[in-house]
Structure to design on (99 residues):
């Protein structure tokens, strides 16, 4: 059975990121290169750091990475940290995301 990397937690903070990092690693181990944030409404920079790490690992494995349902707040953080253009090519546009 294929493992899917889907965050179904409404708020993701530094305290939660270890759990999600392990799941992301497991998903990549099964060649799942879709990072689904559909359950996330609020997150801090720890989620952005995890996404960047996950993207790097997916690229190292030569997987076609895709980020779906990135919360609007992540776009603001990505802009603040100067990494929005790094993640934009991997993001799937959703009805609320401003890619």
């Amino acid at each position: 059975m294929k493992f899917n990397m889907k965050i179904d937690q409404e708020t993701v903070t530094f305290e939660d990121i270890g759990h999600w990092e392990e799941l992301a690693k497991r998903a990549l181990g099964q060649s799942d290169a879709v990072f689904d944030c559909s359950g996330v409404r609020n997150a801090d920079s720890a989620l952005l750091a995890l996404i960047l790490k996950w993207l790097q690992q997916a690229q190292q494995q030569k997987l076609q990475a895709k980020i779906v349902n990135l919360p609007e707040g992540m776009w603001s953080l990505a802009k603040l940290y100067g990494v929005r253009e790094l993640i934009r090519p991997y993001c799937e546009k959703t009805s609320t995301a401003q890619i």
Notes: The chain has one domain: 5-92. The chain has four helices and six strands.
